[in-house]
Amino acid sequence: MVDFPPRRKPSRKGSMADVPKDLLEQIKELERLFTVDQTKLKQVTDHFVKELEKGLSVEGGSIPMNPTWVMGYPDGHETGTFLALDMGGTNLRVCEIILPEEKGEFEIIQSKYRMPEELKTGDSEELWEYIADCLQQFIEYHHEVEDLEQMDNRLPLGFTFSFPATQDFIDNGILQRWTKGFDIAGVEGKDVAPLFEAALAKRKLPIKLGALINDTTGTLIASHYTDDTMQIGCIFGTGCNAAYMENCGSIPKIAHYNLPPDMPMAINCEYGAFDNELVVLPRTPFDVIIDADSPRPGQQAFEKMIAGLYLGELFRLVLVDLHDNKNVKIFEGQDISKLRTAYSLDASFLSFIEEDPFENLSETGELFTRELSIKANKPELELCRRMAELIGTRAARLSACGVAAICKKKNIQSCHVGADGSVFNKYPHFKARGAQALREILDWPKGKRDPVDIRAAEDGSGVGAALIAALTIKRFKAGNLAGIRNTEGMV
Question: Is 215 annotated as catalytic?
Answer without folding.
Answer: yes
